[in-house]
Amino acid sequence: MIKSETIIDITNKRQIGRITGATPGPTLIFTAGIHGNEPSGVTALENVFNALKNYEGAIKGTVIGHKGNLRALNFNVRFIDEDLNRIWSKERLKQPFNPHSSEAREQVELWQEIQDILSDNNGPYYFFDLHTTSGQTIPFLTVNDSLLNRRFTKNYPLPIVLGIEEYLKGPILSYINELGYVAFGFEGGQHSDGSSIIRHEHFIYTTLGITGVLSPHAVQNHKNTLKELGKGRANYFEIFTYQHVPFSVDFEMKPSFKNFQKVKKGELLAILNGEKINSPTKAQIFMPLYQQQGDDGFFLVRPIPRFFLWLSKHIRKWYKLLTLLPGVHANSADSSEIIVNTHVARFFPKQIFHLFGYRARQLKGHQYIMQNRETASRTAAYYNEPWF
């Protein structure tokens, strides 16, 4: 028998729904609305939980859906005081709670809910963050670059963008990835596009099939639809350029860019404080900013050749060798964190470190602190999963 909780109104409690099947299985956690102007994922989860009541006896494991930024959702704004998806650093979470902002209170509530889920449910655990964008887009995945995440997300017929964690400070998924779990984001479309809700539903059902919570055959039509929506672009992309928009600075994106649209070298992309920003090279534009709130102006991406994906898969176990390079030394006993002197190691492009599983976490002076994504992964917990 399925145990199902009543769907709760958007203006009320954080939990959207929770369903546990009679058969043991994984625990899936979907978060929607961590940005308050992105309610499509919330509506999609409400619809799916209502529909799952009809799958009595077919569900394996537990499915949980909750809302991110309750107060911002009520006002349909990205955030109230600060971006809730930019404050999930270990350093901040270790500090005594200081309710200096609306999002600080939201973070504590979300953090406690995550801890309760991990202590009260059976693994393996999967975390999914549902989003929409301010510009037009096909659906895609944003994925922290670990082999565990790669292995799981290759089951989706969608574009996969790796390495966004190197450019964004404090996303919730980076925090969860550092705990070792499968965790990534799904972008379902434009904020104002009503079809974004349906795209999220297709993603959720496809995920239930991949993880074995539902029979893959029962949800194959959803996966087929995702493939059509992805327009055959089931490739891996890497971010190589990021335009930050400082607070109180005038920024205007050139109108009508679509996500993954190709741009030429020298093409005008945006105006920042009256200065033109042109594309430094031939590329594809990614997540152009067409809203008032937010400090991520745009990214530039390019496809990753499959050879380098294959190479990185096989050499990451040798990550400790990087500490033999000049200007590189370990910052932890297991070399999971290294410090790179950019003056000495300037001849080694960041792509070399990416191949070995490192991503730059922060820059202090002339030193990069880089974190290895593989050492935290709880890969063994997923060995018996149907997709592994």
From TrEMBL:
<keyword id="KW-0378">Hydrolase</keyword>
<dbReference type="GO" id="GO:0005829">
    <property type="term" value="C:cytosol"/>
</dbReference>
<dbReference type="GO" id="GO:0046872">
    <property type="term" value="F:metal ion binding"/>
</dbReference>
<dbReference type="InterPro" id="IPR055438">
    <property type="entry name" value="AstE_AspA_cat"/>
</dbReference>
<keyword id="KW-0862">Zinc</keyword>
<protein>
    <submittedName>
        <fullName>Succinylglutamate desuccinylase/aspartoacylase family protein</fullName>
    </submittedName>
</protein>
<dbReference type="InterPro" id="IPR050178">
    <property type="entry name" value="AspA/AstE_fam"/>
</dbReference>
<keyword id="KW-0479">Metal-binding</keyword>
<dbReference type="GO" id="GO:0016788">
    <property type="term" value="F:hydrolase activity, acting on ester bonds"/>
</dbReference>
<feature type="domain" description="Succinylglutamate desuccinylase/Aspartoacylase catalytic">
    <location>
        <begin position="24"/>
        <end position="136"/>
    </location>
</feature>
<dbReference type="Pfam" id="PF24827">
    <property type="entry name" value="AstE_AspA_cat"/>
</dbReference>
